[in-house]
Amino acid sequence: MTSFNNPIIPGMAPDPSIIRVDHDYYIATSTFHWNPGVQIFHSRDLVNWSLITYALQHDEVNLRGTNTPAGIWAPHLSYDHQTHKYWLAYSHMQNMAGREFNADSYAMSADSIYGPWSAPVYLTSIGFDPALFHNANGKHYVSILEWETRTGYQAPGHIVIAEVDLANGGIIGDWHRVTTGFTTRGCAEAPQLYHHDGYYYLLIAAGGTGYAHGVEIGRAKQIFGPYEPNPTGEPIITSAPQHLFSLGDPDAGHFEMVNPHSQMQKAGHGSLVQTPDDEWYVAHLMSRPLKGTTLNPLGRETSLQKMTWTADGWLQMADGSNLAKSTFEGPRATSGPQDLTADDLDVTFNTATPDQHFMTPYQSQTTDWVNTTERPGYLRIHGRNSFFSQVNPAIMATRATSLNYTVQTTVDFAPVHYSQTAGLGLYYDSNNWIYLCLCPSADGTRTILKVLQAKLGDRIDHRFDLAPVPASHADLKIDYADGQATFAYRFAANDEWQVLGPTRDVSYLSDEGVNGEPGEIGGFTGLFNFIGSVDAYQHASAADFSHYQVHNHHLTRKEN
């Protein structure tokens, strides 16, 4: 058998929900405050994956004002073999203040994975992480975490199941509380139902989405239980196999559970798929910290583990352990090779719409602020709010997918007011970014290059490292290496690259480095590269970008 590298989907691709329809595999992942919402990836071999579409791309949700890390959580893909429809369930997390965690959950369907998707049907506001199960008897069920807010009760709550009305929305009958988890890790969430050999199996995430994360399993003869836990009393997949008792703990980082012997951390939140040859795999999230740190710039990525069923009907990793691995055994029908350059980008703007890898925080991509038609061959971005805005930042961004890479672009921009900028940067959220930009000099007499930065909500103007821009035109480049960023420029294609200022520590642009409480992860989204423009003057200026490139280095994906 051939082994392949994890992650199979690097960069921000968390909460993977995997299905197979005939010989095609699909994975949906969370997108939080980013538009379009819900990434959908495709593979024919479980090894090589490509982004093919998004489910929420027609203003089905309003993400303006979304605080990190709220937004679109844990989409769940399913396929109803009786109606031949694809279904997608998801939560829109709107508030996390006071640990209230107010989320509305919806379901939508389509005849094709590419859509069009039906209008979202409301399911519930009981909690988050809904998953649909289409039973062989024609009934449909939803499993979800019921979020607990009562003092003195086990947090974060119960896993609940109910019959669901997919035609009209809502549930049929009552919610059934079935478990608060199958181990002592606590923080049960992301429940997903499967039926196999006479049992209903409930796969859940546990331990919080930090370093104690894991995948747990229980089973029952009836869909509403009672569910018996996996007899090992431990997760079936985790990066931290040592025992943990944390019942009632909030969803904390659990930094004490870092595994110093594992490249892969935070393995958990998995979903199960069966190949045509009766092989079984779990797709799950994981992270890769910067070497020697607990900082994860790439957020939570998607990996794969091969599974087997034991003689007494329990699911376990194929090697008999529960430790998630950085390689996996591919299906028998797959011989490779694995394309490790698939995440490189070389984008020009000669089509009617921008490349689908581009995403935008908070607002939607609409032609009134970004398009390829006003100046053919260029992506024109009209300046809007500052990048501190959670309403209308004019940003086109792609997921960072490596801990060592180069991103570059070419921009034409002629600012006339000090609040007008345009350029290339790194972005986590509205409070955390860094940006190599063209802007007017302080006296307004010329265009210059400088670096602007947001760190934990503070604005930093690196105003002593400047370069004059002779013709409102520049090539811009950022070299990112293990949390350090070097900014460079040139004004003609045959010029040598010039470095602007010192190499800067940008390791805070990571899940643990942004505005979190002590012991908590600050977010769980991930680092993006972006091109963008600001005009807090008259919304009258625009920047033209002729190309956008990302080249990942050390493409073995065994970077630390």
From TrEMBL:
Keywords: Glycosidase, Hydrolase. It holds the Pfam family Glyco_hydro_43. The keyword Hydrolase applies. The keyword NADP does not apply. Transmembrane segments: none annotated. Its EC number is 3.2.1.37. GO terms for molecular function: xylan 1,4-beta-xylosidase activity. Belongs to the glycosyl hydrolase 43 family. This is Beta-xylosidase.
